Amino acid sequence: MTSHTEVGSEALDDVTLVARAREGDVHAYEQLVLRYQGPMYRFAVRMLASRTDAEDVVQEVFLTAWRRLGQLQEDVAFMSWLYRTTTNRCLNVIRSRRPLAEVEPEEHEATGVLPERSVEIGEQMAALAAALQKLTPEQRACWLLREVHGRSYDEIAKSVGANVTAVRGRIARARVQLAEVMAPWR
């Protein structure tokens, strides 16, 4: 999936923006940041269950990406590279937490919903957030990349540094655990 940004009358895809950014075009890189900071942040906040940690991770990822843009082998792989870098940073943050503190799930706002339904949705989201935190970090990363971010098994394997079989196994185990926890909500 190639995204486009309008600059004047010219539509710029990721490959063009990455090539221009590699040549030092700060505006082109800003366009890439605007395009991908939302998905990277949403992924990181679900991995870490902390908005503050997610903001820090995403900021680090984009700073690192800017510094290392020249190392990217294929311009078309930019988004996958961002997911891999974000995944690795999140896993490092999770591993560095000593001891692993109980993390309160982030509050979720429901809009345009009756108050009773809003409470129920909030409880479901809190249960899902808590269940996600009980998965291993690797399972959580694989499940989020597949189910929330729609990445392919191959992309996930590259992002987490595992083979496709391991990724499929992690996702299957995550689905089973999540289904058990979420069964009362069906």
CATH structural class of the largest domain: Mainly Alpha
**Helical fraction:** 55-70%
The radius of gyration over CA amounts to 18 Å
Distance between the termini: 33 Å
Question: How many structural domains are formed by the residues?
Answer: 2
Q: What strand line-up does the widest sheet have?
A: 1-2
Largest sheet: 2 strands, antiparallel
Residue windows where pLDDT falls under 50 for at least 5 positions: 1-9, 100-111
Order of helices and strands: EEHHHHHHHH
**Percent in strands:** under 5%
Number of helices: 8
CATH topology of the largest domain: Rna Polymerase Sigma Factor, Chain: A
Number of DSSP-assigned strands: 2
CATH superfamily of the largest domain: RNA polymerase sigma factor, region 2, helix turn helix motif
Per CATH, the architecture of the largest domain is: Orthogonal Bundle
Q: What form results from the Cα inertia axes?
A: globular
Going by helix content, strand content and strand pairing, the class is: mainly alpha
Average pLDDT score = 81
